[in-house]
Amino acid sequence: MRFSSLLLLLVPVVAAATAGTATPAVSSVYHTTSYTPPVGVKLEVTGIARLPDGRVAVAIRRGEVWLLQNPEADPANPDAVGYKRIASGLHEPIGLLWHQGALYTMQRSELTRLRDLNGDDLIDDYECAAKGWGVSGNYHEYAYGPVADHQGNLWMTLNTTLGGGVKMPGHRPTDNPWRGWAMRLTPAGVLEPMSAGFRSPAGLGVNAEGDVFCTDQQVNYWGTNPLLHLRKGAFFGHKAALIDVGRPESPVRHPGEIPEGGTVAEAARLNPNYILPAAWLPYPQLGQSATGIACDLSNGKFGPFEKQLFVGEFTFSRINRVFLEKVGGEYQGAAFRFLEGLQCGPIRLEFLPDGSLLSGETNRGWNSSGTRSFALERIRWSGEVPFEILAVRVQDDGFVLEFTKRVDPRTAVRPESYLGSSFTYIYQQKYGSPEIDPQPVVVTEVTLLADGKSVRLRCTGLRERYVHELHASGVRSRDDESIVNPIAYYTLNRLPKSASR
Fold this sequence. Notes:
Layout: H1 4-10, E1 30-34, E2 45-50, E3 56-60, E4 64-68, H2 78-81, E5 83-87, E6 97-99, E7 102-106, E8 111-115, E9 125-130, E10 143-148, E11 154-158, E12 181-185, E13 191-196, E14 203-206, E15 212-215, E16 225-230, H3 264-270, E17 279-281, E18 290-295, E19 309-313, E20 318-327, E21 330-339, E22 346-351, E23 357-362, E24 374-381, E25 389-395, E26 398-403, H4 409-412, E27 419-424, E28 436-448, E29 454-460, E30 466-471, E31 487-492
Antiparallel strand pairs: 1-24, 2-3, 3-4, 4-5, 6-7, 7-8, 8-9, 10-11, 11-12, 12-13, 14-15, 15-16, 16-17, 18-19, 19-20, 20-21, 21-31, 22-23, 23-24, 25-26, 26-29, 27-28, 27-30, 28-29, 30-31
């Protein structure tokens, strides 16, 4: 089976990778260096795991796992980094995790535990840790993960089946459960279906609080790429997964009728069993295919974005950033562009102990922007703080924008320094959606807060369950700098309770 189909799951039928909105200025305070692998080794990275001793293991699409002995050494010097192949023969591993003394990776048909039994840095034991989902041979049946929550549960996600199954002489149809679901393996070894409604949930990550998130792709029922907070019993909208809600193990009840053809906002209002994403990643402004997730727990070693999520974007070979907050007990928040110009499409992201960020990349099977077909890159912060919108927090009548630096009071308090609008998407079986039902969000009053880095915007036109696009292009820092990425996309699922409407 050709790996080219893997990127069909990551990148829907789209325009060329160079299409989209104008590219913003790229922050000069983050520096990217590509690793040079040993001669003849193609590190088409699909999984990255950080070991307790600082070493890093990477899974590659060719079914191998490689160990980097000194990942913080000069990436251009393969001898200094120290590469060693420690496992092979895996079936399309997409994800890698160090957990309780072993490596775990998702193959198509199972979650596999990889153990070195004699300390020679070679995997001796390939053990099935979990299985129980259907695999028909369909090209689209990829499996991702795992990641571990703070209770020690391992989470994994499964693609839907796209099209018919393999039909060969002697082929018999088989039961094919849990496609388009998130699964969880408990510390006791019990595999549980958890939530449903996915198409290609290719990215998995855990935030600072231990909650699990995944990304999905723009397709039918997804107007654009979503970032989803996974939890037991949730249905996120892709109806192909509903075939399994009647199984006795299912914690998801059938959501009932979800009206199609109208907006996702209206569908969610009419049917509260349809759960909206924590954040929409607008297409193509933030890209065309969201992938891996990494949470910055570097304690400031990667800059001012501590505890925020970084999300890979395959088609445009970039990384986006997401700030989340809880309103009414549910996550929602703002997405931003962060870094451009990777060598090809990032699949997995992982932080090193020194605070640098690894990006594992491949463009195998589809076009991504960049100059190479595969790469492992290391992104380091220079120590200089960029002038960015750090966070957006919703208020009952507007937003608070927090910046990474003190702002110029003259530009920051002018309402004309800001521009806003809101929009949503169509909930439909048809592929994708344009942005629809746009309305202006008007900034009527701005107050500079006492920290000198935050402004309180009072606005008209706020709408629940809509994306709010906020431009702050007119704001400058006290050092007369413009904002590197001046646009925030805030997914406003609900207003604070005092003004919910």
